[in-house]
Amino acid sequence: MPVVSIQDVGQYDGQEVTLRGWLYNLRESGKLLFPIFRDGTGTIQGVVSLKDQPAAFEALRGLTQESSVIVTGRIHADKRAPGGFEIQITAIEVVQRVPDETPYPIQLKEHGVDFLLDRRHLWIRTPRQAAILRIRAQAVRAAHEYMDSQGYILTEAPIFTPAACEGTTTLFEVQYIDDQKAYLTQSGQLYVEATAMALGKVYTFGPTFRAEKSKTRRHLTEFWMLEPEAAYAHLEDMMVLGEGLVSHIVQSVVKNRPRELETVGRDVTKLANVKAPFPRITYDEAVKILQERGNSAKWGDDFGGDEETILSSTYDRPVMVHRYPTALKAFYMQPDALRPELALGFDMLAPEGYGEIIGGGERIADYDLLVKRLRESNLPEEAFGWYLDLRRYGSVPHAGFGLGLERTVAWICGTEHIREVIPFPRMLYRVYP
RNA sequence: UGGGGCGUGGUCCAACCGGUAGGACACCGCACUGUUAAUGCGGAUGGUGUAGGUUCGAAUCCUACCGCCCCAGCCA
Q1: Hey, where are the domains in chain A?
Q2: Nucleotides of B under 7 A from a protein CB
Q3: In the CATH hierarchy, which fold is given to the domain comprising A121-421?
Q4: What pLDDT, in 10s, does the model give residues A362-410?
Q5: Which of residues 212-241 of A touch strand B (CB under 7 A)?
Q6: What is the interface pTM, i.e. ipTM, of the complex?
Q7: Nearest to residue A360, comparing CAs of A303, A401, A404?
Q8: Interhelix angle for A235-256 vs A405-413, to 10°?
Q9: Topology of the domain comprising A6-96
């Protein structure tokens, strides 16, 4: 008897199989029971009658939601069944029955956000949440595929770091051994610059932490970032890499996770156009577009949520805005040789108001300029000694960017809030469960 | 941190100008051989975030605190 996953039952039409999973819901109609089982790969309706299978009927009748079960029966296509296939149950083994006095708390009806987040460890069992996490996994896999195909080597950055890379106000401080202090990384960028000088083209993928007091649908205090960095690369190279990477991620999810996209209710036609090349506009042009649309943006302003939404809603795919004023960007950003008031950086804005999914650009290669910028930013020079070494020993032009995984997945899934796209979201005022 | 909103049975909500806190779902029982968050009938349990104040009387009005949501800033 083959043990199969629910996602594969279509290949077993007419055959008897065993499924291992949980009871998701149970409907009754007279001497018929219609249980719905889930196993993490999908859901399937079962059917059992008292007359034909009295033992299985009795075992299933009154069974509590989320009890774990091993089900044996014949798969057959039936238009009346949700999903097109159902299993005609011949035997059922209850692995653990959820006690009647402590029923499963998450019902099929609506719940509030706080209630669900307090039970996130159970909420992820619901089909929509499971589908989102499967899409996330596919996005990660596609990202690795693409970086590998472009000759980039995965190198890991440390999570304990001695200092900030963009300023100290948003760092989580931790006590290290004895009286030492360390901080949780807010970006692997400085380290990936070092490994780029060692290996040429590299990227890092890992968790990053920001103690920002941000309470919006686009922020987490712990999120995952993919950061490529390449020696001898320039701004243009990174914009090409960024659009190629995002195109590949989106198209891979569309191709390999159609069922999950349907489960989350995503309009897939909006993802179909997401193919390189993406539109590019300069910061100057962006300001002009905003002013034409009646926005009050002036040259020198950074863009907020409203501005990003106006810009991104102009296009059917992500848009890249490049050459921002130097004053708006991090200390390590290379100024444009032709217009030093502009930095050779770019942001990629996702459509439909999902905001910035990529930020990056060319780094300062010159030792003296980097020291000057460090001092202007009031950063502790001694903590950056190793970083300055990179400009002392064979410094070359180099560039990179950071891709926010959760924002990218939230956009692909069309979720209202970023908290749904990571298994256990860490937010301002929430570290449980 | 600022602005706005909200805290009522296990869950989701209602209760107008202060006057007996109610419904749906969930749960239990019965009926039903094709249900689609099944349906119909019946039943039991159980609640006003916390602390004060005003009042004959507070879920409702006032004050403080606690918690949550949304928006803004910052960012990915």
Answers
A1: 6-96, 121-421
A2: 1-2, 10-13, 25-29, 31-39, 67-76
A3: BirA Bifunctional Protein; domain 2 (3.30.930)
A4: 999 999 999 999 888 888 888 889 999 999 999 999 999 999 999 999 9
A5: 212-221, 223, 225
A6: 0.90
A7: A401
A8: 40
A9: OB fold (Dihydrolipoamide Acetyltransferase, E2P) (2.40.50)
